[in-house]
Amino acid sequence: MSDPLRIALLASARFPVREPFAGGLEAHTWTLARALTDRGHRVELFAAPGCDPALGLRELPVHRPVLTEAARADVSMPGADWMAEHHAYLRLMLDLARDGEHHYDVVHNNSLHHLPVAMAPALRLPLVTTLHTPPTPWLESAVQAVDPCPVTFTAVSAHTAAAWRATVPAARVVRNGVDTRLWSPGTGGPYLVWTGRLVPEKGPHLAAEAACKAGLPLLMAGPVGDRRYVTDYVEPLLGDGIDYVGHLGRGELAALVGGAAAALVTPCWDEPYGLVVAEALACGTPVCGFDRGALGEILTPECGRLAPPDDTAVLAELIHETVRLDRRAARERAERFCSLTAMADGYTALYEELAA
């Protein structure tokens, strides 16, 4: 199909798609939206108000419920954030069911919410849903609501596709890509780097412990997602070469990562993909991490090392091997395996197939 496509891109109704990003999902959505518009497609974005105006996209309205005092007094009522998200996606899907086929060729559900999948049978146009996480009960239930489920599923890694196989047996793998123009090769330097949300499942405290054991300084950057965890586990490790430099925009973050000798990636769960791995490789920065989830898919012996999960002693030993790896090999791996071009090619081919 040579004509531009009309794409409704569904993101989080809670977080705007703008820098500094709330997390990897918002960063991925921004990158995908930009890549598609650069190819001439018309993208309309459904996300929390306040998205980056530089994207040049039309924002689909997020409708929130107006509840009476009597309804709010109901002790069985879910939390306000849950209700707001539920109402936003319910209203959106009803709008798309009513007249979506007149405005779009395809809907791409890039959110984690179950309602777009549950209400897909009401649409008269194709719906793509990307699986970004391990299986969740709400989403598994939505997939099984109609047999067969009319949704076309993609997964961000072969690991994630395998995790969903019992419910979604045929998810196509389209890996998250990074803009290799922005995440450009750096010269490396004397420090290690850790980036991501500061939450228990990302394990920044383990990165700090490994860096201390390796005797190398570590700079950490990212949003504080769990204040109590940071206070109890991360802040006591700061000092003596372990520093937190804040929540940075992509330009500052790329410079920080490119200036590092190696990136530490220390998930305490099975990481569905690991966008920070792709970003580091694009900067020519080799990666030393725990062998969890999809990290083993992305890294090769030429650009990274993997330690057993949670083993900071082995991780510290492998750091010294990692910093000696060829930075050109890391960059080449990113260009071949997890570039923005590869991701945009994968999604565009799928959209055209479904729209045809």
TrEMBL record:
InterPro entries cross-referenced by the UniProt entry: Glyco_trans_1 (IPR001296), Glyco_trans_4-like_N (IPR028098)
Keyword Glycosyltransferase belongs to the record: yes
MF (Gene Ontology): glycosyltransferase activity
Domain Glycosyltransferase subfamily 4-like N-terminal: 23-181
Superkingdom of the organism of origin: Bacteria
Domain Glycosyl transferase family positions: 189-326
Keywords: Glycosyltransferase, Transferase
Protein name: D-inositol 3-phosphate glycosyltransferase
Lineage, top ranks: Bacteria, Bacillati, Actinomycetota, Actinomycetes, Kitasatosporales
